[in-house]
Amino acid sequence: MAKAANKATAGGATRLVAHLVRAFRERERLTQKELGAMLGYSAAAISAVETCAQPASDEMLIKLEAVIGGGMGLFEVARELVQKDKFPPHFQDFFDLEQQALILYLFESRVINGLFQTEDYARALFAGGFPVLSEQRIEELVEGRMARRALFDRDPMALIEFIVDESVLIRDIGSKAIMRDQLAHLAQLARRRNVTVQVLRLDCGLAGEHAGTGGGLTLVETPHHQRLVYMEQQDESMLISDPAKVNLYSQRYAKIRAQALGPRESLDFIEQLIRRA
């Protein structure tokens, strides 16, 4: 639902689209009602976009490009920018790196990594966080998170390795039903040829201590074969390119991997949790 309060908090991409829609509409000498009819929307929907009360949907941007874009591709560019507005601010700059990565090595000790989340799991996380978010913002964040899944089917295929702490798998997020679906989704992804999932058991090794107690981390290999480290903490993020530090975190990740169950054992363990749920 469009809200006047959204105008004050609209992101840069939303404001850009608002300006483009109004400028292109006026260039074609169309009323909001006429443009809406051409796109399959109401005049109120066009007004909401032009005033930033409601961001343009991906579907609307595609139609705008086809109907009034004039072949310039501006609304196509706007689609990418609007998509980034749907991510948390601290993640926006990393999105392109993630989607272009040749290899991703992921370790999480708090929640399921965003790439592997279901819609309901992600929605429960955003709804339960702080500060309290509007329903519209929650849905935007969920939509952005689901868009990251395109990486799984990208050509050329990315290799994705995910190590998850057992505590993440046994903590119910949202509800038991949501968690059961999340585990089933994780197991489904683990069966893909380009994905490896490993579980770090609570009693790994001789006891519970392990190399990942410092928290989650992401290792990225770029198309230029550069290795980077990305980390998040309390809505803040850090991207590390210093070779010495990247090497240290790479060795730490390798240690975590050695302490985790193998891929086959991990899938069996996840399937056991699903049967118990």
How is this structure best described in words?
- With 277 residues, the chain is α/β, with parallel strands linked by helices.
- It has 13 helices and six strands.
- It has helices spanning 6-9, 12-27, 32-39, 43-50, 58-68, 74-85, 92-100, 119-128, 135-147, 166-170, 176-190, 243-259, 263-276, and strands spanning 103-108, 159-165, 195-200, 217-221, 227-233, 236-240.
- The chain has a six-stranded mixed sheet with strand order 3-2-1-4-5-6, with helices on both faces.
- Helix 11 packs antiparallel against helix 13.
- The two termini are 36 Å apart.
Mean pLDDT equals 90
Helix content: 40-55%
Give the strand order, joined by hyphens, for the main sheet: 3-2-1-4-5-6
Number of helices: 13
- Report the β-strand fraction as a percent range: 5-15%
Helix-strand makeup class: alpha/beta
Low-confidence stretches: none
The ordered H/E elements are HHHHHHHEHHEHHEEEEHH
Overall form: elongated
Measured on Cα atoms, how large is the radius of gyration?
A: 22 Å
Q: What's the N-to-C terminus distance?
A: 36 Å
Major sheet, described briefly?
A: 6 strands, mixed
Secondary structure: number of strands: 6
